[in-house]
Amino acid sequence: MEIDLSRGSIERVPTNPKDTALYLGGLGTNAKLLWDRVPPEAEPFSPDNLLIFSTGLLGGTPATGANRTIVSTFSPQTLLMAYSMMGGFFAPELKYAGYDKVIIRGNSPELVYLWINDDKVEIRDASHLQGKGALEAAEMIRRELKEPKAQVCAIGLAGENRVYYASIEHSRSSASRGGIGAVMGAKKLKAVAVRGKKDINVARPEEFMTLCNEVLNYIQHRAKNPIKGVPPILAGIGSPQEMAIHDEEWHTTSFAWGNARHRRKGFWTKETAEVWKKTQEKAVERLISCYNCPMKCGAVVSYPALGISKYMMKCYSKLTYVMGAMADDLDFGFRIAGLAQEYGVDGYTAPQVMAFAVELYEDGILTDQDLPGFPSGNEERFFWLLEKIVRREGIGDILANGTYWAARQIGKGAEAYDRNTIKKHEQIPIKLGMLNPIYFLMYSTGEKMNITQIEGQMPQVPFATREEREEFVKDWIQVPDEKFKEFFLNWELRGENAFPHYPPPETACDLVEWQETMHYIDDILGICAGLSSFPIKPPYHIHNLPKFISAATGMDFDKDRLWNTARRIRNLLRAVNARRGLRRSDEKPPEDHWKKRFPDLEKKLLDTYYRFKGWNSEGIPTKETLDGLDLAYVAEDLLKRGILSEDETAAAEEAAEEAKQN
Amino acid sequence: MGEKKKKIIKTIKIDADKCNGCRACEVACSAFHATPKYSSNNPARSRIRVIHEPLKDMFVPVYAGEYTAAECMGRDKYVLDGKEYDECALCRASCPSRDLFKEPDSGLPLKCDMCESDPTLTEPLCVQWCITDALVYEEREEEVEEEEEQEDLEIGLEALADKYGMEKLIETVARLSVAKKE
Ligand code: SF4
Ligand code: SF4
Questions:
Q1: Strand order in the sheet with A9-11
Q2: Is residue B133 in contact with ligand 2, taking CB distance under 6 Å?
Q3: Which domain holds residue B8?
Q4: CATH code assigned to A2-195
């Protein structure tokens, strides 16, 4: 369905079956739409930019966890394609209403919301919702429509004020990365409400249900068999079970605090563990799931004694504010995350921007003049900053643009404090010792801009002993190829078969491709990464996913066809971004991500990866690559624009030759 | 009065405290009852609906019970644990006062049939799909007075009669049977 908010028009357009065959759905068809329709010079806030709410190909089918809404647009922060997957209940409801996607273009003159009730679609006045919290607005909409079963996603004050890291909030989930909420704010779209009462069909019902049952059985099997030898948070499946697990030793001691600066190695003591456990048990009222999924990754949080009114929390935001603020108490996390959600800001980026501001203040780059009335306690400071940012008040107006842009606007050396962004986007705050070639590539080249949306399936570090590894690979049915088991068996903590030279670049590329491909597939199908691409030994994997597609659609998919489809979409996305200026020089992790860096090796890694992908030395897919993936129209456009040149192949061969000689 | 006879009492024990609001039960139920079986799913057709109001901490699966032609004389309203449920929220009836437990297009009443089928399932599908055990299936034997079960067909016809009037229904059936013969 297409909505033009400038003109106030609503149009139902059937999904093109040719596009479905090539790009399936979700992220795939979103990328196609953005390529086709948004000229690369379009500003993210301009009416030309599209904001797409999409279901995945399997969205709303009985496949467990096929509930993701894939929201895509161009990011005001990175200026590249942004896409964020939100869990909850929205996408299935949209599908029950009979739509694969809602494509929004244009900017409305007044604040409005969209009400989709099966075939009835209305653009409604939202002036009374201005300034309301995201969840509050959702509740008001449900009440005024008298539709308690409607699913709503909405922006808060941050989105209305175009904060570059504003989120779109829905129930217990959100689409937070890349400032998607700011684009919604620019379109003056406060919310989308949907209610659907139609059927979702599958082509081969018995086969499909058998597959679903296998997945449910495997989930139960994994619940009884957590992975041995990894921290508890990585042992199970689902999104990290932050709401159920109290043991935060791994996150608090190995991730960086403050402005991605400090390790607090001794933080997790017995006393802390006890206090935090108590706080969490008091705050978490009930564990809750997304649509059609048993995993309970979220929680209803409520802590009246601390003035926390009820809200729903998702996995990691409980820690990001605590660690950003260098706070000692978990209850601070519960207190501020609820407020931040109502305002609608990204729980990853917001605390880092605040920590960045605090550091600038402590080092005298920001002064009392910039921050009049700035409190002295860290927790109070975070609350203070949050209020300024979401209103774009005073310094908040600058900080609302994220670390990268704020640092440059502030100047006076503030750039050096922008120490945890890639492609202008805040990353998970981790600072480690030895360069990890796999992660080097994932951080550098990922289009998703969040490592948790690139990594997965492969344990992050080697297991200590050969016996443990042998034990681990025994029931490792998820690997696309036996060679990954070989690699894992030989992978050591120390010595020759350890970082940074093991895995060698070619193997590193293979490993990265496997992991990122699985994420691409999830985002195309609308399956939660927590059941598929993210955890170790998940219920969905490359061997059963093609069967799901075949049984659902009647198209014949096998492993190779699916892999190739994911490649097509990966390359299309890359082309979308290349057309907007993404080049090799943008593809690097933060300077200090690792203490021990190896520039030559890193160059080789990147060269190898580009070649492996069929990209030129700037990281742009070559004509051959594109042609081979039915993307000739993309190659043609890149050539016309001079982004690719005709003699690319020759250059690539030269580079390969050169690499061999080195 | 009928005779005493042994009867299997099929029970789904609902532990609302364990419900996480995922609505997998709705998906499974509506898929099971689709024709052909599993060919579609649609919670609006499900014979179990979950009261799902996370911010009020309300998570209660409710099964579709009997069809009723007329609504109650009054309404009921439950307050449990300090939480006030909507009017009639916990009622299982397919009733003219609301659109719950009715087929979305025809308005015909829906009723949980414990997934009666051939071959029989070990447990109703919603129970199988609720792996968090908010729904647990139990069977026990009881001696009961024999009583005529109202057949599905009869329930459906009665609902249609209530909706369109008996006369119209008879007319239509007559017309259809003539049309079929031709
Ligand atoms: S695994 Fe967790 S986050 Fe993913 S769909 Fe299930 S409940 Fe939601
Ligand atoms: S499947 Fe179980 S946990 Fe999920 S909504 Fe239904 S009763 Fe609740």
A1: A9-11, A2-4, A101-105, A51-55, A69-74, A81-86
A2: no
A3: 4-143
A4: 3.60.9.10
